[in-house]
Design a protein that fits this description.
Length: about 425
């Protein structure tokens, strides 16, 4: 029988933590809902810091507590709150959260302490944590406007900051869903808990509620360099040429315009021209002069994130694809020597494999008529027109070993006649 895990928080460890608190009289430690909470005395009365002021700490030793974490993270700036997630055994769960007073301090902490060696050969991971404050609401009646949805959400939940409702370009109705932005993560979590299964809006419309996918966060420095504006709710009749003429505003230089359905991106030459265009496009005077654009929403476009470079595919992938051409069944693969499949990067084996692959290819592959004798009808539930004809190319798994090279005519007669 395994012995129970001993809690590292023994009397000696608690004494060390108490000594640390004695040097910080404005702080206290509480254990609430499975977490140890180190925070200032009047934390609940203080306003919440700006979003992005929290960092996530991962890969913590299970016996690591405030006496080790607080001195390290205080070197970056004053700590507002530290949450150490705990197990029932008294050990931590390997991660924690630290809230600073502003996002800049949190960003500095993630840059300086990510990969910090907290103990010999033990490195922690630190990154900025973006708390979720947005909910997805599905099942919204399509005839409801933004103001109606906003009023209803404020009746049933608290802390609603904004409602994002996307309209259809065809009938000017909403698309049956919306996103609700809340003031804090707690407000959003309480709203999600309240609007559980079977919850009704307006007393009769059942809705589905879940966390919205978080948008990629962009720093103020990155946004200050953006020279692209994003326009939504455009009429379908407006072309890219029209947009270039309208949004040049008699002198602004536009490098490129890209329109997709009811939204568009306009690239300006400089940041100053972008700011000028955004200011004019959101003015009442501009909208009154262009009634066809009265429903548009104009904002800065988010800068695209650099995609990681994809590594070149290992030759094993190409080898496996060649195997699948000859036959996708396991039995057809077993006819090849296993060292060919397991070591495809060797030149001599690759050449041998190509040779066998050429041998196993069916003879009539160059003629579609020989592969498909007649059209095949297939009823697919995903296709509206069930009488549509779908063509399928069937590869016959055939393996030809060297000892069969002298029996070409015999196999041709048996397989392809």
């Amino acid at each position: 029988m395994e012995s129970p895990i001993k809690c590292p928080l023994d009397e000696d460890r608690l004494k060390i933590i108490d000594e640390m608190l004695a040097n910080r009289p404005n702080y206290k430690i509480e254990q609430i809902n499975g977490q140890r909470l180190y925070r200032v005395e009047n934390d609940e009365q203080m306003a919440e810091p700006m979003r992005g002021s929290e960092v996530f700490i991962g890969r913590l030793p299970r016996d690591c507590y405030e006496d080790e974490l607080v001195p390290i993270f205080e070197e970056i700036g004053p700590i507002r709150r530290l949450r150490l997630m705990m197990d029932f055994s008294g050990t931590n769960r390997g991660y924690a959260f630290v809230v600073y007073r502003d996002p800049e301090t949190a960003r500095m902490a993630s840059e300086r302490l990510d990969g910090f060696q907290i103990r010999p050969n033990h490195y922690i991971g630190v990154m900025v944590s973006w708390d979720k404050r947005r909910l997805f609401i599905g099942g919204i009646p399509k005839n409801k406007k933004k103001k109606e949805v906003m009023n209803e959400m404020r009746k049933v939940t608290e802390g609603v900051r904004d409602v994002i409702l996307y309209m259809s370009v065809y009938n000017h109705k909403n698309r049956g869903f919306c996103f609700v932005e809340y003031e804090t993560h707690r407000d959003a979590a309480m709203a999600r808990r309240r609007m559980g299964d079977g919850f009704l809006l307006w007393g009769k419309y059942e809705v589905r509620v879940d966390w919205a996918e978080p948008e990629p966060e962009v720093t103020e420095e990155e946004m200050s360099k953006v020279t692209i504006i994003h326009i939504r709710n455009l009429p379908l009749t407006v072309s890219e040429v029209d947009l270039k003429d309208i949004f040049s505003f008699d002198g602004l230089r536009i490098e490129r315009v890209k329109k997709i359905r009811d939204f568009a991106f306009i690239h300006y030459t400089t940041r100053t021209e972008t700011e000028t265009a955004l200011s004019i496009a959101n003015s009442i005077d501009f909208l009154s002069k262009n009634p066809s654009l009265s429903r548009i929403q104009v904002s800065y476009a988010r800068p695209p994130k650099a995609k990681p470079l994809r590594k070149r595919a290992v030759s094993l992938e190409s080898t496996q694809s060649e195997i699948s051409i000859c036959g996708s069944s396991p039995s057809s693969r077993m006819l090849y020597p296993m060292n060919m499949i397991s070591s495809p990067t060797q030149t001599n084996l690759s050449n041998q494999f190509r040779y066998y692959q050429n041998l196993c290819a069916p003879k009539p592959i160059h003629s579609q008529q020989n592969l498909i004798s007649s059209p095949l009808k297939y009823e697919n539930p995903l296709i509206e027109d069930k009488n549509s004809v779908n063509f399928f190319v069937v590869w016959v798994p055939v393996v030809w070993l060297p000892q069969n090279q002298n029996k070409d005519q015999f196999l041709d007669d048996k397989l392809f006649r």
